[in-house]
Amino acid sequence: MRPLLKYLKNYKKELLLGPFFKLLEAIFELMVPVVMAKIIDNGIAENDSAYILKMSGLIVLLGFCGLGFALTCQFFAARCAYGFGTELRSALYRHISTLSYSSVDKIGASSLVNRLTNDTNTVQNGVNMFIRLATRSPFLVIGAAVMSVTIDLKLSLIFFVVAPLISAVIFIIMRRTVPMYKKTQQRLDRASTLTRESLEGARVIRAFSRQEEEIKEFSEAVDDIADSSISVGKISAILNPVAFMVMNLGIVAILWFGGVRIDSGSLTQGELTAFTNYMTQILLALLVLANLIVIFTKALASANRISEVFAIPSEVSGDAESAPSDDAVIEFRDVSFAYETAGDHSVKNISFSINKGQMLGIIGGTGSGKSTLARLIPRFYPATSGQVLINGTDVNELDLVSLRRRIGVVPQKAVLFSGSIRENMQWRKENASDAEIISALKTAQAWEFVSKMPDCLDSRVSQGGRNFSGGQRQRLSIARAIVGSPDILILDDSTSALDYATDLKLRQALRDDLSDTTVVMISQRTTSLKDADLIIVMDDGKAAGIGTNSQLLSSCEVYREIYDSQMNEKEENRNA
């Protein structure tokens, strides 16, 4: 929790004034039993209606003052808690956006979403309750005990027996329930993961008619949460009846021994009533304190989860700038890479270089390391060993922002964002003109269908680009990447949904319109890479062959097998 306290620095005034006004409310609340005692002893006993009305008015006044102080406290508490929550969420979101791919993979996207939403709300609620109740409950317990001592020392000994008993009950129950709250939070992560997977893969689930299985798995996850919550609830349910039982026994003892004290003239009826009220105040304050401990426990668990994210170091960025060069733009020197959770290297001992304006093709079977190899260029993942160089400078030494601004990346899964086509096209270059956007759309072979849309560049894009076909999404993603003419363009199997004719037009347009751009194209089609200046054939993380199309056909068996199988498939399709 301590690392998060810095987000309260702008709310020191609220953090002090909130508890102060709550303290005033508690003082006025402690005065009510004393006034009640005077009404009974002086007003009712003497049958003095005027006195009764006057003191009753005082009780009403005390009530209104207490209400005013309580509302003032809640105003400061809300301002502090929600301001703190806003700053915490913003800082957490900023930090998450700086984490490396490996860090995000390690902690999990669903868990990060849960920490950014649910956990920050829990911590925010903890701050709110702290300001509103942290001073009130202890002060009421101590104040009620002190007031009872001032009324009758001997009878107040009952307080010092009952209060520890109620505290012991609270402690025993809290000791059992606190670890269970932490487990419930972990099970919420599991439910969040399933929700995310089900929503993102809704079409796949329906295509395989797996709705019932997914519903069953999700039901089991939420049942686990329910079972955990019910178990905590059962134990917590013991708190109120046991505490009230102890309190009522304490009230019985007060009435029993108080009656004896009244008979002896050592105590008045009003003072006995005040004693009873103070006993009730102590119990209620202790119960509120118990609930406050539960809230603090949840907040502490959530704060620890948030602190774990903050403890993950941001992606390390160099400060060097890569100067434009006519020499090798991309160079790999004996590069190997392994994911943290993987047992073996995904990329092993890769060395090559590609010059400015040339095309690098990467081909290979599923899981051969094609995409992993491409991700090392913009340093989405740092190489485990070896060097990746851009214009002769190691990417580890380059400023990440400037590096990635010079690289256009089209991921394997085409992702568009809700908004307009124009807004999506301006991701690489915020001030890109319509002429630049239209030029990029033409190069990506997307202008043909965009120009026919009623609103053209202002046409709406639904979340994830669901209102476009797979091929249209891919072409729009390619256009977005080439707006502003990047120095390096990485196409990670980004033409898989395009037909051969459109694929050919796209490659020709890239050659003509982006003559100074180095293109890295990952593809399953040998026809898409046959004109590449250099082709790397990946096989189980290793380079089975490096060369041009003609060189690989004569020297690389893996490439020749892929080429022959695709040529035979095309021939069979023609005959069919």
List its traits.
576 residues, alpha/beta, ABC transporter transmembrane region fold, six-stranded mixed β-sheet, four-stranded antiparallel β-sheet, disordered C terminus
Summary?
This protein is of the alpha/beta class. 63% of the residues lie in helices and 11% in strands.
Strand order of the largest sheet: 6-9-10-3-11-12
User: How does the overall form come out from the CA principal axes?
Assistant: elongated
Give the CATH level 1 class of the domain at 2-311.
Mainly Alpha
Low-confidence sequence ranges: 571-576
What is the count of β-strands?
A: 12
Looking at the overall shape, the CATH architecture of the domain at 2-311 is: Up-down Bundle
**Number of helical stretches of at least 4 residues:** 21
CATH homologous superfamily designation of the domain at 2-311: ABC transporter type 1, transmembrane domain
The average pLDDT value, as a whole number, equals 83
Largest sheet: 6 strands, mixed
Helix content: 55-70%
Class from helix and strand fractions: alpha/beta
CATH topology of the domain at 2-311: ABC transporter transmembrane region fold
Radius of gyration, taken over Cα atoms and rounded to an integer in Å: 35 Å
Write the layout of secondary structure elements.
Elements: H1 12-44, H2 49-97, H3 101-107, H4 109-133, H5 136-151, H6 153-156, H7 159-200, H8 202-207, H9 211-237, H10 239-263, H11 269-311, E1 328-337, E2 347-355, E3 359-364, H12 370-375, E4 385-390, E5 393-394, H13 400-405, E6 407-410, E7 419-420, H14 421-425, H15 434-443, H16 447-450, E8 460-461, H17 470-482, E9 488-492, H18 500-513, E10 518-522, H19 526-529, E11 534-539, E12 542-547, H20 549-555, H21 557-575
Parallel strand pairs: 3-10, 3-11, 6-9, 9-10
Antiparallel strand pairs: 1-2, 1-4, 4-5, 7-8, 11-12
